[in-house]
Amino acid sequence: MKSLFAASALLLAVSATPASAEEVLTVHNETGYTISQIFISPTRTNQWEEDILGVDSLPDGETTQIDFSQSEDTCNWDMKAVYDDGEDPVWFNFNLCELSTITLHYDAATGTTTAEYE
Q1: 3-state DSSP: the chain helix, strand, coil percent, rounded to 5?
Q2: Secondary structure (3-state) at 118
Q3: pLDDT band at 5 (very low <50, low <70, confident <90, very high)
Q4: Rounded distance, CA 113 to CA 88, Å?
Q5: Which of 8, 53, 81, 97 has the most CB atoms lying inside 10 A of its own CB?
Q6: What is the pTM of this model?
Q7: How confident is the model at residue 18 (pLDDT cuts 50, 70, 90)?
Q8: Whole-angstrom Cα distance, residue 40 to residue 61?
Q9: Are 80 and 34 spatial neighbours (Cβ–Cβ below 8 Å)?
């Protein structure tokens, strides 16, 4: 099993354009582990929304698409991924008006999960 790791905090630029109802985020799991839950919430809130995977999980090498708009008038969102062993890296302030894809990687040598985005 993987060791404890620190999530990398990614701060992205703020956009003046609010998210539209059609905004979709693609998440690739390239960690080597199964992700059992993914949560996204507007950055300005202190609570996570419901698990966007529902009863599904996101195995290593798989991809899911997330409709993040939820009628919110914001571009900046936080994301938490929960591995099947309960570890839960968190990233803050993703500007989902400017990016459409996030790929998650786990580095066993450093014990860190990182998010690469485009």
Answers
A1: 0, 40, 60
A2: coil
A3: very low
A4: 9
A5: 81
A6: 0.77
A7: very low
A8: 20
A9: no
